[in-house]
Amino acid sequence: MITDPKLLATIISNNIASSDITLDEVEHIVLHYIRLYNSSIKRV
Predict the structure, then answer these.
(1) Relative orientation angle of helices 23-43 and 5-17, to the nearest 10 degrees
(2) What percentage of the chain has pLDDT greater than the value 90?
(3) Contact, 21 vs 15, CB < 8 A?
(4) pLDDT of residue 36
(5) Which residues contact 16 (CB under 8 A, 6 or more apart)?
(6) Under a CB-based contact definition with an 8 Å cutoff, are residues 4 and 18 in contact?
(7) Looking at the record's lineage, which domain of life comes first (predicted)?
């Protein structure tokens, strides 16, 4: 899993630029990563 926010943003923006991903998919991915991140923080 990608944990570097800048790297994740770069990958997403590159995919949007190449039309491989829609904004709805981006929203879904980002929300999923936020949930994963928040759940990993609670475990520490």
Answers:
(1) 170
(2) 0
(3) yes
(4) 83
(5) 23, 26
(6) no
(7) Bacteria
What gap in Å lies between CA 44 and CA 11, rounded to an integer? 27
Q: pLDDT (tens digit, 9 = 90+) per residue, 21-41?
A: 778 888 888 888 888 888 887
Token couple for 11:
């990958």
Structure tokens at 29: 């991915």
Instruction: Give me the torsion for CA of 16, 39, 41, 12, rounded to 10°.
Output: 0
Checking if the pLDDT of 1 tops 70, the result is: no
CA distance 3 to 12: 14
**In which residue are the tokens 């949930």 written?**
35
Residue with tokens 């709805």: 24
